[in-house]
Structure formats: C-alpha cells, structure tokens
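Task: sequence design from structure.
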C-alpha cells in the first residue's frame, strides 16, 4: 500500500507540474496577445480616426469654397446654406480632432488650420454681403486674391497635418509589428522551456518507477542462476561455513526432539512411506 501511495504521489506531482507549466504558458500567451490586440486597436481606432478626420477637414473646406462660388455665380440660397453647414461640421470635427491629438506639432498645425478656416468663413460672409449689394467687381477681387491665398495656405497646412498623421500611424504600425514579433519569440521560448521541463519531469518519473522493477528483474535472474546473495556482495567461504554449522545444529536439535511432540507427529504424518518401512513391535 505504501508503494502504491508513493507511485501515486509521484504521478500526481509530475502531471501536476506539467499542467502548471501548461497553464503558465497559456496565461502568458493570453496576456501578450491581449497586449498586442490593444496595440492594434489603438492603431486602428485612434490613429486611423485622426487621419480620417484630417482628411475630412480638407473635404469640408473645399465644400465651403465650392458653396461660396456657387452662391456668387447663381445666388442660390441652397449654396449659402451648404456653406454654413460645412462651416459648422468643420468646427465639430476640428474640436474632436483637437481632443485626440497628443503631439504639439500637430496641435499647432490644427490651430493654424482653424484660423485659416475662420478667415475664409469671414471672407465668404463679406462676399455674400457684396453679392447682396450687387458689387460683383469687389467680391470677385476678394475671391481671386484673398480667397485664393487662404485656400492655398489651407491646402499646404492640411497636407502637412495629413502627412503627420500618416507618419504617426506608420510608427504605431511598426511598433505593433515589432511587438508581435517579440510576442512570437517569447511564446516560442516559453513553449520550448515548458516542453523541456515536461520532458525532464517525465524522465524522472519513468526512471523512479522503473528502477524498482529493474532491480526486481535482476534479482530474479540471479536467483534463477543460483546466486542467493543480495547482488551487492558475494558470499565468502567464512559465511558459507557459518551457514553450514547453523544448519547442522538445527538438524541435531530436530533429531533430539521427542517423538510425541506435535512437531514430530506432524512431520511423521507427512512421511507415510518412512513409517511403513519401520518394523512393527511384537505384542
């Protein structure tokens, strides 16, 4: 029973250690993959969103330019409403983008864009007033001079902002790729260490379990060959001589034992042939 408990404990300890190593590997892999997922989420949700918003600012300012020109050419109130609508959407997206920006360089560019857009909006209001006063020469002069300069400056600034956002996104993507490669290497290393530890534990358990069986097999072979020693030391002539003397003493005591003793009767019953050969006593 003690041997069974020992074997059971060894098996439980070995497999338990292997399970613990596997659990550590799974937990480590889950943590690293979660970190990598958060990195890619940041790249997709934040970096891409900021880039899209920067592009949207460019679209809105061009919509303002088109709406202003459409109103000046046709006098359609829908173009003027579109101008006001584009200005309001620009303000919302600019505020949202300002809350997401972290670098001072991009914040400065956005502030310059907002200033240019506000100047263009005020220019549009002046041209609308001149249109209402029927002064085409003056509002055409404003559009071709000040308006053109503002749109040119706005295009330059917005292109710089978009380029900065693209560079930030590329840097974040490179960092995420480097993190993914590092996670892959770490998982491989930890997996190899876990496999090595599991192999070591398995080897130790198999060796500890097979050692008594091998010793028993060797002992059986020695007994079959007539070797009654314990396998560690050979029987010396002196030990054999003592063993013979002990056997001789036991034999003498046996012969001197009375015939009426239970031991003698039991041995006599086991040898009926000897009793048959003894001569019977005369009455």
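Answer:
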């Amino acid at each position: 029973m003690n041997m069974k408990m020992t074997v059971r404990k060894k098996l439980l300890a070995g497999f338990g250690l292997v399970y613990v190593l596997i659990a550590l590997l799974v937990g480590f892999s889950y943590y690293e993959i979660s970190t990598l997922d958060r990195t890619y989420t940041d790249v997709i949700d934040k970096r891409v969103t900021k880039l899209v918003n920067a592009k949207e600012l460019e679209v809105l300012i061009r919509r303002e330019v088109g709406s202003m020109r459409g109103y000046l050419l046709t006098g359609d109130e829908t173009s003027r409403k579109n101008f006001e609508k584009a200005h309001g959407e620009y303000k919302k997206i600019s505020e949202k983008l300002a809350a997401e920006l972290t670098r001072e360089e991009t914040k400065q560019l956005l502030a310059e864009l907002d200033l240019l857009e506000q100047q263009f909006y005020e220019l549009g209001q002046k041209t609308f007033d001149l249109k209402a006063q029927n002064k085409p020469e003056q509002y055409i002069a404003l559009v071709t001079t000040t308006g053109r300069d503002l749109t040119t400056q706005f295009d330059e600034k917005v292109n710089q902002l978009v380029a900065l956002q693209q560079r930030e996104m590329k840097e974040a993507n490179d960092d995420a790729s480097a993190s993914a490669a590092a996670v892959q290497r770490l998982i491989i290393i930890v997996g190899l260490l876990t496999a090595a530890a599991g192999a070591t534990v398995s080897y130790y358990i198999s060796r500890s379990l097979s050692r008594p069986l091998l010793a028993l097999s060797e002992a059986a072979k020695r007994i079959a060959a007539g070797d009654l020693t314990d396998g560690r030391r050979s029987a010396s002539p002196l030990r054999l001589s003592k063993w013979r003397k002990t056997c001789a003493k036991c034999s003498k005591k046996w012969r001197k034992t009375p015939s009426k003793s239970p031991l003698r009767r039991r041995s006599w019953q086991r040898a009926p042939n000897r009793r048959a050969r003894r001569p019977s006593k005369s009455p």
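The chain has a mean pLDDT of 76.
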